[in-house]
Each structure stands twice: as C-alpha cells, then as structure tokens.
Amino acid sequence: MNFSKILAALSAAAFALSTISIVTENEVSALTTGEAGIAFQTNTTWNFRNVYGETSSATSDGSYAAFPNEIVGVVGGAAGYGNGNFTDIPIEGDGSYSVSMYTEGSIDIDYEENDYGTGGTWSILQNTDPDGSAGTTTDKFNMLLITTDIECTYEDGVPYVDGEEVTVSDLSVDMCGTGYTADTVYYKDDLDYLTISVINAYGKSSIDASALPTEDGFITIDFTISGLGTMVDDGDSTGYDDGDDSTSDSDDTEYNTENTIYSSDNEEYSTYSDWGSMLLVGYTELEKAEDGMRVTVYFDILDGYEYYLIAPCNVNGTSVIYNAETNADSITGVTKDTDDGFSTDTFDGEYYLQNDGFFVITDTSINSLTFTLSQDALDALIADAYSETLSSTLTTFGDDTESDYFGGLVFQVYGVDVTSALLEYNTLESSDDDTDDTDDTDDEDSSEEDSSYDSSDTSSTSSTTSTTSDTNPSTGAAAFGAVGIVFAAAAFIVSKRK
C-alpha cells in the first residue's frame, strides 16, 4: 500500500486548514500564531533541551536537541541523546495555554561523539550509566523556559511582537506535584523570540529559582498571553480584535486528575504488530471521568514504513471510536480532514484525524499526539464492558485476576509502537465519609442499568459510511454498528481479545 495513493484518495474528500499558522480571508490578519514548549538545562548533569533557533548541538542524524525537536542532550550531549516526552502546543493569538514535559527518558539516540554508548537513562534529577550505575546528579535548574518560535523584540525587558506589547500573566507551575505561582513574569530578553523565563540562574526568575522536583514526573506550566490578537470569523477582516472569540479546536480545559498507563501494564497489548492493538486503558479507568478525557499517546516511530497510523478503538471488536459521518464529536481538540479547506497538499502540521478514525502522523520527529474523548464516547465504551453479551466470557487481565466484565480503549497501530498514555480528566466530586449502604445500593442499580444498555438507540446501518470507505484506501475502513456507539471498523482488523 503506497502512501501516495492514500493522499490521492483523500484529496477528493472535504479537508481542514491547519489551525496553527493559516487564517482565512474572514479572519484577522493581525493574529500572531506560533508554537510553544519547554526548554531547560540542569546543573551538573547538564541535561538540556535548547530554545528555538539554537542549533549548536547536532546528533549524528543531523537533528538537534532544541525545540521543536523532542530530543534531550545528556551531559551536554557527551553522554548521548534521548527522546523526550514533551507536550508542545500551538499558540493561536491571545489565550491561556499549557505546556509540559516528563522528567526522564532513555538514552537511545546514537551520537558520533558519544564516548559511553546508549542504553542508560537520563533524568532531570540523576542520570544512569549503561551498566546501571548511578551517574551525575543535579541540585538545581540553570534554565527552565517557555520557548516559542514567535519573533520578538524587547525594550527594557518588555516583549513586543509586530510593534504590539505582549504580556504573559497567570503563570503557574506544577512541578511533579508541587505548585508554584509567579507574582511577576520575566522574559529572556537576549533572544530574538518570545521566551518566558520561569527559572534563570543567570538572570531573573518568575518563580522560586531553587524549585526542583524530588522525584520524576510531569512538569506542567500554565500561562496566559495577551497582545497577539484573536481569531474572528464574522465576515469582517478589517482589523484587530481584542475579544475572547477564537476558532481554535484545541482543548484548554483544566483537569484535576491525571494518570499514566503503560503498554507494559498488560502483556497482551504490549507488543507491536502491523495493524495490531496496543496499550489497554481499562473501562474502570474510564469510569473515573465525569466530563470527557484528554488523552496524550506517546510512541516510537518505526523504521521501514511509508506511513504511520494510530486509531483509538473500542477493545471489544477493535472498532474505531471516531467516524466523521456517524459520531464526529466523539474526538475533538485536533485537526480533522473534514475541516473546511483542509488539503493534504498544504497541511504542514504534525498529525491529523482521518474521517475513518485513524490519526495520520505526517511529522516523524514527534513522539506524542493529544486528543479529547467526549463523555458520550467514554459512556459507550463503559456500556460495552457491562454488556450482558460481552461479559458472558471471563477475561484474564494483566494482573492475572478474573472479571465478568471486559472493555476499554486500545490503539490500533501501523508503523507506530505505542509506549504509554497520559490521561487527564475531572473526577466525580463525592465524599467517602458520607457513603453508606444506601449509596452502595444506588451504585449497584446504576451498574444494572448500564449492563442493559440498548444498542438500538444509537446504532445505524453500515450504509451510512459506505462512501467514506470507498474514498479511504489507507485503512480499508468498512462501517458497522457497534454496541453503544456507531464505529467505522477496518475490514482487516482482527480483535485481540482472547
């Protein structure tokens, strides 16, 4: 199957503009867009990810440990390079944004000047040598920055973009569970791009300069930008709009809970195979969310493939969750090939969602993608787990315990080895202290209602997606009705359930 055939077939469908850098004639031309992420350097370990535009440390394949590449230099690069887990985000004018990174990873990129080989691990806190012995440790950040590719000038430390003063406010940092808030936001004003100085041992820091995690985890930085303009689509392209309207489809929701699931947690879904299923997120995890779930999938791009695909699927039947015609709102927060004006010829983003439910990864330098599952989609997956038909067979889980119920989310893959997924959601607010026997009875009644879920309410005939199937040779998608929600399924997909 040739990737050029995929693009040729998709070019006949309805397409979407990349929301990162293109505005229509009805939108404000003064809007400034770009991309943002975390750059850092730690003391004594000298692990780093450089700011945008810095190309001083090249790996043997010609790439750099600099934003937007998701690469970390270890001991200044002398001890190798590793793939980092960074959540970089598009900046689309004024608004509130969030960037994050995971504080450890493997040293797995060969480097021609590497004098001690790959196979160890890097961490913001302590490196580990390939033989397993402890390497260098750190005592502080030299730099923790929000780096962007937005060109900028500074006057007395104040940033200006296209002559407009830019202000960053509401800056807060979750450092692996410990929170910090900035009273005053400072900038790294010796650069040519908008760069926010969270910690700068050589200048001004927006938070406590001694802040450092005590254990590995996620560092998340939230901030608000004003002065870049906002996107409008009211038929009037006559000027700058400083209101709150935005056409961005990104999910800016703040969630109170996060959890990371690893492929290795369940052996049956831990090994890559072409068109196979990886990384099971069990239905009990999905039950914790009350208003949808943001999912960031981490993966490795495999060599020898012409294209790279990931599809979020219902583990029962391995049927895809998203279909543009039957349940277009099940996945949001991403560019879709059904968006107005989309074309594979002009798309310059990292990935997009096909109308048959598969993410197409177009930038092979990335190692993650993020989307939001609607609560309706979660409820359908949970209902399938409690279905009397599906639960009639006992299923053995990764912890070797048996359950009458089986269900959840998996990822069908081609050319992509999924390693983990970060789940973000809001949990139901309830008090364990107030729970009594009556509450337990109510819960049991609720479960009984779920188990008798009637698929006839939401199912439809396979003819609803026959046109999509004909124009999508990339995955050979043929539609069928599934319990709880209509999913488009790939004809060659074989369920991994045993």
Description:
This protein has 5 helices and 35 strands. Strands 1, 2, 6, 12, 18 and 19 form a 6-stranded antiparallel beta sheet that branches. Strands 22, 24, 25, 27, 28 and 32 form a 6-stranded antiparallel beta sheet that branches. The protein is mainly beta. The radius of gyration is 24 Å and the shape is globular.
Nutshell version of this structure?
This protein is mainly β and 498 residues long. The protein contains five helices and 35 strands. Helices cover 9% and strands 35% of the residues.
Question: What brief labels describe this structure?
Answer:
498 residues, mainly beta, six-stranded antiparallel β-sheet, 5 helices, globular, disordered N terminus
Write the layout of secondary structure elements.
Elements: H1 3-10, E1 33-42, E2 48-49, E3 71-73, E4 81-83, E5 86-87, E6 89-92, E7 95-102, E8 104-109, E9 121-123, E10 126-128, E11 134-137, E12 141-151, E13 153-155, E14 158-161, E15 164-165, E16 167-175, E17 178-181, E18 186-187, E19 193-200, E20 218-226, E21 257-262, E22 277-282, H2 283-286, E23 293-301, E24 309-314, E25 319-320, E26 331-332, E27 351-353, E28 359-361, E29 368-373, H3 375-385, E30 395-396, E31 402-403, E32 408-414, E33 416-425, H4 437-451, H5 466-470, E34 477-482, E35 485-490
Antiparallel strand pairs: 1-2, 1-6, 1-12, 3-4, 4-8, 5-7, 7-20, 8-9, 10-11, 12-19, 13-14, 14-15, 16-17, 16-20, 18-19, 21-33, 22-32, 23-29, 23-33, 24-25, 24-28, 24-32, 26-29, 27-28, 30-31, 34-35
Could you report the average pLDDT, rounded to the nearest whole number? 74
**Beta strands, count:** 35
Question: SS-based structural class?
Answer: mainly beta
What is the makeup of the main sheet? 6 strands, antiparallel
